[in-house]
Amino acid sequence: ALDVDAVLALDWKAAAFVVLVMFVIRPAAVLVATLGTGLSLKERIFVGWIAPRGIVAVAVSGLFGAALADNGVEDAPLMVAFAFAVVVTTIIAHGFTLSPLAGLLGLKSSESPGVLIVGGSRFATSLARKMKELKIPVLVADTEWDRIREARLADIPVYFGEVLSEDAHHSLALNRYQNVIAATPNDAYNTLVCTDLGPEVGRSHVFQIGSAKERSERLALNFTLGGRPLTREPALGWFDFQINMTRGWGVQATRISDEFPFDKYLETRAEGARMILWRKASGQLVFASTAPEGKPQPGDTILSFAPPKPEGRAGDPRKGTAGAEKPDDQP
């Protein structure tokens, strides 16, 4: 057990021990252990700085400390206190230096937040295509090969398999995808996907189509169950998306500017159009359902599900550079 008096009794020798562990012993051990692993020197240095540590180290030190004390080693009771000092110091130091060190070593990702779309369909391909054009990392996953055929032909990254399987957790770099859209015909499965992946990407970053349409109904559900609606109210189900796609609807990208502000977009957008998200100039993604009062600013790009605009209508890209682009699957 950890003795508080032993911790308070630590002196400069304990501080020297912590420094030695952090800057010499751990980095050297990691550099040797990672020889021939294919990791670059920068990656090995980074791993050496954030080497594993935790309560297990304290527990093991307590076991050995007790054994050494039984054998008459005078300072054996200090082992737990030393281990505790290492754990606390490294957690604090690494917490504040992890991101800056990754940037200094050039290991920090510069990619925009990505989106994982679970469920292949014409709508999913349309949405993924627009995301790809905006340089947003996107992946379409499905258990049916035919459902991701259109996405593959559009050169969109796909995953054939069950995203909730253990294999997917090992083979998919889920850290690239900070948002999940469950877009299968099965609402129960969409709820399961959002519930399962919610803790990994964040509850406010999982979305599903066909979600509860009434706000009161959604509020009655447990917050950890399912995801947020993909679009602002009223929500659309899978068949709504698919039927509208056959009628010429598609995902449109609209850039907001000083000449074409958000208020103008609201005035000129087609009737029934649904905002899905907008990409800020900084690369951050804001989903419309998470920001009901949100207002895109100049430089932001809105992705919406809408019918094609008539020729000559204000904001039509065929009449100028501002406004919505032509939706997918349109001549």
Keywords:
331 residues; alpha/beta; Rossmann fold; 3 domains; six-stranded parallel sheet; five-stranded antiparallel sheet; 12 helices; 11 strands
Model description:
It is a single chain. This protein has three domains: 4-104, no CATH class; 114-239, Rossmann fold, CATH 3.40.50.720; 247-324. Helices cover 42% and strands 14% of the residues. The chain contains twelve helices and eleven strands. It has a six-stranded parallel sheet with strand order 3-2-1-4-5-6. The protein has a five-stranded antiparallel sheet with strand order 9-8-10-7-11. β1, α6 and β2 form a beta-alpha-beta unit. The model is unreliable at 212-216 and 312-324 (pLDDT under 50).
Which class of the largest domain in CATH terms? Alpha Beta
Estimate what percentage of residues fall within beta strands: 5-15%
CATH superfamily of the largest domain: NAD(P)-binding Rossmann-like Domain
What is the CA-CA span between the terminal residues?
73 Å
| H and E string | HHHHHEHEHEHEHEHEHEHEEEE
Structural class: alpha/beta
Q: What fold name stands as the CATH topology of the largest domain?
A: Rossmann fold
